[in-house]
Amino acid sequence: MRRVEGQELPLDFSPLFQHISHMPVRLTTAKTAPRSLIAISDFLSITFGITPCALLVILALAGCGSESPSDAGDAATLSAWAHAGRQAERETLAAQVARFNQTNSDIRIDLTFIPEGAYNSQVQAAALAGDLPDLLEFDGPFLYNYVWQNQLRPIRGLISPETYDSLIPSMIEQGTYNGDFWSVGQFDSGLGLFADRSKLEAVGARIPTHPSEAWTVEEFEEILAKLAERDPDGQVLDLKLNYRGEWYTYAFSPALVSAGGGLIARPEYGTAEGVLDGPESIGVMSRFQRWVEEAHFVDPNVDDNAFAGGRVALSWVGHWEYDRYRETLGDNLVLLPLPDFGGGSRTGQGSWSWGVTRTCPHPEAAGAFLDFLLRDRQVLEMVAANGAVPATRGAIEQSDHYAEGKPLNLYVAQLTGGFAVPRPRTPAYPVITTVFQGTFNDILDGADPRRALERAAREITRDIADNRGYPDVEAER
Amino acid sequence: MKSFLKHLVVALAAFLYAGPILFMVVGSFKPDADVLAEAGSIQALLPSEVTIQNYVDVFERVNFGRFFLNSLFITGSIVIWGLFVNSLAGYAFARLQWKGRDALFLLVVLLMILPYEAIAVPLFYQVSLLGWRDTYIAQILPFVANAFSIYLFYTFFLGLPRELEDASRVDGAGTLRTFFEIVVPNSKPVFATVTIVTFLFFWGFFLWPQIVTSGERVRPLPVAIATFHTLPPLKWGDILAFGVMMVAPVLIVFLVLQRWFVRGIASTGSKG
Amino acid sequence: MTQPPSQRHRFRRRFNRPAFAGPVMAVPGVLGLLLFIAIPFLTAVALSFTNLRMGSPLPTEFVGLQQYQRIFADEGFRRALINTVLFAAVMVPVQTVLALSLALLLNQELKGKAFFRTVFFMPVVFPMALVAVIWELIYAPGPNGILNSFLDLVSFGTLGPVDVLHDPALALPGIMLLSLWQGVGFQMVVLLAGLQSIPGVLYEAAAVDRAGKIQQFLHITLPQLRNALIFTALVTTILAFRVYAQVEITTRGGPVDATTTVMYETVRTVFDRQQVGQASAMTVVFFFMVLAVTLIQRALVKQEREIA
User: Fold this and answer.
1) What's the pTM value of the predicted model, to 2 decimals?
2) Chain B contacts of C186, Cβ < 8 Å?
3) What is the complex's ipTM, to 2 decimals?
């Protein structure tokens, strides 16, 4: 390597940059700066001036924003992370937190909304940095990974027995792992097909009212074809392809189970091979691909308005769209079970729920907050905002959507009748879902279903092997 | 005739080129439902109905002002501290004789080709362990020292005539005083160039803040628009309004100071 | 001003010796580079030989070259390498030629020259994240999308609607187009300044020698623009290797890996899968890629110089 001497440069960038050293230099003193250079000093002074100002404003904002009111000086402050879901949901939660803070002068919940897209990534990064919040909301199946990583503490002793006893079975199932109870949420989810009744009637389609009467997938495809004939652009189905991330696993992995396949071998959760890339799973994914790529049944839904805007007759979606759809379709809106791919209709379950982290300094205060969220009033308020299935028996009874004969009773029938499948209860879940999401997208974009699924199954199985089957590290010690 | 043709070609190219910008601005003033519906027709540029509702919505839905100030503060800090730190280093390498200089300079040149993205992973790990995740400092400090800026300063200072500094020294001024009173005022072009290049780069910086920030507190604009774009309900009108507000101030600064701005960028590559 | 105390005086005298002032002035910059670039990079090299996973309660193990074997065996990563090189290989010449054409166009007698220059330069101040969001809308599928309506118009209905971001053959070109739109103004301004600094005498002399326009361009314009062209090519290359935001926002590497890039794979590996060890290996590979390209460019520039 040559030595750096004077103008000679080591990596010989000199030809690139010698022009800069040849730039005409105006030798001036500040007093006699020529006209053309004044702009530079102007700009610099603007930049130099703005930055301190911005800093001041930020400090001021931070001052008003995060400083607690004076009376909260000795309150136990708990930080909480929640997902930035739909607007009504966010507003309701924020209002409930505010109400809780107001009525409990000794506890203060400091709520932060985290974008849904990278939620787990943010949790993992915060865990690494040691700055996880005290109360953490997460999508149901991520629980098992967080427990394995030893991020959470059991909450059975933190919440009141009444709260625990009021929970519907699927919520207790979701929160229970390794013999402890770890999380509660205000709602479970409901997944099905929203349909425009008049369009279905126009093609003479049967309208199932119970999951056991669900359309078979062949029947479903016939209906799609008939609907498409009458539709100006032939696109009659909305799969919410504008969504990203967890949606794909939540919404479409039950179809694999219905056909006899799935994401991973249950209940050992040791391998995905032979299941995710088995003939049943390949068959289901090939159908989805055909609907999108060949038959063009599926609206790309770039504006998220395919169903509400009347462009399609069917929308494969969760409870959260009920309000909006109801507003535009009125009594024409009907909720149907997902099609039966062979072994009976299967649908998704599980939703966002709360856990208390190991590092939380006031676990009993966190428990009090969870008790508050799970009171019927809060639960009903939340499900009124997002249309989800209430997590407590009391709230279900009082709700005007879920009782027998009400419009969303189907969700309850699915949850209690064994039609809903929980996503895999394993610490490998974050990897399983990441891999499946990518694979689902690829297949819809035209990848060969068998090859794509084989690759996905290999990847998931390898991750499990890499982690030595996710042993219970605490128990081993 | 030839001149007319020339103008026609340029005007056509300019229209195509400005298309996305026009579409963004016009779309931001349309009722949300019209943005996509009218995208394929001439109404994409000539709205049938004009409203500022989208702008109102943005402020109702997210803390836009906060994001903007965050960006301004982060980028401003990187630029200003960077000018200071890198010009000093550039001067030390260009003009002063000291032990280890050549070896260190070689290191700077080597680091110049190492893009920030290449160290994002370990730096992310490092910053997380330090507890700097989700702070301003994690978005500023690692980027103040900049090998490329040091290099730009270095080459510029090499080309400055030595006589001025020598005269200043004879007058009894120290090294630092000579630097600040004689060298800096005579080096405005390079300071301007470095300011612009650094500002543009970090104003649009996306990957790093995306992985080190989580809440809204220290989130800068590029991450904010990516998040806003996935925040339900999906409203394209609001997203475009967000985009207009995000870029308009920089665009205005650019238009006002245009001649100078262009000269600063041109000087990075022209032969002068 | 009062006379400074003698101790301070001594310090000042010492400081004014370059042997002392030099290191002091260089320290903040060099230290910053060491702490935030050199050390993280060396950390990455070390971590790439381990199976470090974020958050895993299992012990981290030394795995030798396993991570490298894995990433090179991985279809997605191999595709990312190809895409990244392809992206740079297309972007550098295309963007340079386009920028040069625009610069030549604007270097002529033209009414409203400043206006046109402004138009072409404007996208440069757009952050890539915003550009990606706008273009996602432009690429909206279906006959009503902007791009599709435009295609329909200019092709008199022969070019059917395309779904750029979901078509494996079109997605990468789509990402290139939006990157081009954002970046070309910068190069154009640099080249325009280069053109304007070419002494007119040279062209007058050439005209006397009856050299045609094309000959003038080849024998005067290009050689005179050499430094500016090398600079723009270098900047475009560096930026091309970094392509990330566009991909993350519009296609997420899809369809079927058609737009995945090395940076995108790296970030997904560490951020979505917490595989710090594997992502570190990708980082090291990325570094050697950039290094190789830089060395090649340097060799080319040097060779050309010797010929000249």
Assistant:
1) 0.85
2) 265
3) 0.87
